[in-house]
Specification:
The chain is mostly helical and 154 residues long. The chain has a domain of 87 residues. It is built from seven helices and no strands. The longest helix is centred in the N-terminal third of the chain and has 29 residues. It is extended.
């Protein structure tokens, strides 16, 4: 008998939440995400063209400089509170890989700064981005070892 009561309670709860939850305007959300994400990418492309033309950079050096500038801009805008407003407006469009990653590192650091430098900022800074970094490093080590072993055999 308790199982039926639990099912009814769950159904009633879901019905209640559905009735009070705001309706999502999917088309508007998709368009906002598309144009904001595209604008962020266009800014990155402009920075790339500028560094290529004015500084004469190319290849890996150019990619590194553009990445550093985009990470800096993402962190700066997060620190100023601008990136959060962009995220509320654009949703997933603000999570363009490199600026979104900078946001995911800086946001927890800003949130926990009241707990002090070590226990707050330093320990919480990678709470969201940490697993991504660990997975990336572990994957690169495994790939590096496989190449090393392959070239030892060949």
């Amino acid at each position: 008998m308790q199982g039926n009561e639990n099912i009814n309670f769950n159904k009633n709860y879901i019905d209640y939440i559905s009735s009070i939850a705001p309706k999502t305007k999917e088309t508007r959300s998709l368009l906002r995400a598309f144009w904001v994400g595209g604008t962020i990418c266009c800014i990155g492309q402009f920075i790339r063209f500028a560094f290529e033309t004015w500084l004469g950079l190319s290849g890996d050096e150019l990619a590194a400089y553009v990445s550093v500038v985009l990470i800096f801009l993402g962190g700066l805008l997060t620190g100023l509170g601008v990136y959060d407003r962009i995220g509320k407006y654009a949703g997933g469009g603000s999570i363009v890989p490199i600026t979104g990653f900078a946001n995911s590192v800086v946001s927890p650091a800003m949130e926990f700064k009241s707990e002090g430098f070590i226990y707050g900022t330093a320990s919480k800074m990678f709470i969201i981005a940490g697993p991504i970094i660990v997975f990336g490093v572990a994957s690169s080590v495994l790939i590096g070892l496989s190449y090393y072993i392959y070239f030892l055999v060949v």
